[in-house]
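Course assignment 3, question 2. Fill in each field.
Student: A.L.
Task: Predict the tertiary structure for the chain below.
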Amino acid sequence: MYNDQSKTYHIPVLLEESIDFLNIKPDGVYVDATFGGGGHSGPILNRMNAKGRLFGFDQDEQAQSNIIDDPRFTFVNSNFQYISHFMRYYGVPVVDGILADLGVSSFHFDEPSRGFSYRFDTELDMRMNKSGALTARTVLNRYSQKELQQIFSEYGELRNAKTFSNMICETRKSDKIEKVSDLIRLIDKAYRGDRLKYMSQVFQALRIEVNDELGTLEVFIRKSWDLLSPKGRLVIINYHSLEDKVVKRMIKNDLGGADTDEFGRNIDKLIRINKKPIVPSPEEIRKNSRAASAKLRVIEKI
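Answer field:
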């Protein structure tokens, strides 16, 4: 039996609920699309027999230090949008369930060098994949005013996105914006209302842009759906409204749109296991404040 040693990397959110909703078959094939510290992979393996197989995806090379030593487990150091490519590579045409715990892990927030948090004065990086070319520094110093305004308006939902983007463009004429403290100085001049909320919105917008989080999420959901076997389940935990909108829209339009039979009658393609999202209990939120915004959605392929 696998024992979870990953708590220092990331505290899994809605752990029991997400594993239960996978409806694991002991000899099935499953994918943990956001492996991280293995907090979900371990419990999945615990419910499988010797014939079961589990693939864990993570684009962050540092996640490799958490690889589970188990012959049933295969680690894939790649972004989950390439899930179908790697399943073909490993000779797996269909899988019985896929789990994705979206967002940034506790490790990334707590690791100063990654630049995800405003708590540490480090370089503005924010890459999930350290081999990626685009960083938050590049966005802030090279994007046009219109591009910055769009990012902070759409991804950060800032009401004064135009003002803030203009301020960035003026500042970088004489000083590069390279460290967290440089960005916070701008935030302190621009924010209205709740300062911490404003900072969170700014950092969220940059992180989403740097990692193309919403675009890769769409690709991942579409590819995952194609991989699922009949009665296979897709379990997704998300943490902010933008992710949730993508998930809901794709379930309704891209995945849930009905086919028709030869007589023109609608044929449903999925079952919404939970019509309303599952959210953490007050007790879980007390233990892990980062769970507060989590929503779990589950669909099953017909």
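Instructor remarks: Residues 15-101+213-301 form a domain with the Rossmann fold fold (CATH 3.40.50.150). The radius of gyration is 20 Å.
Grade: pending
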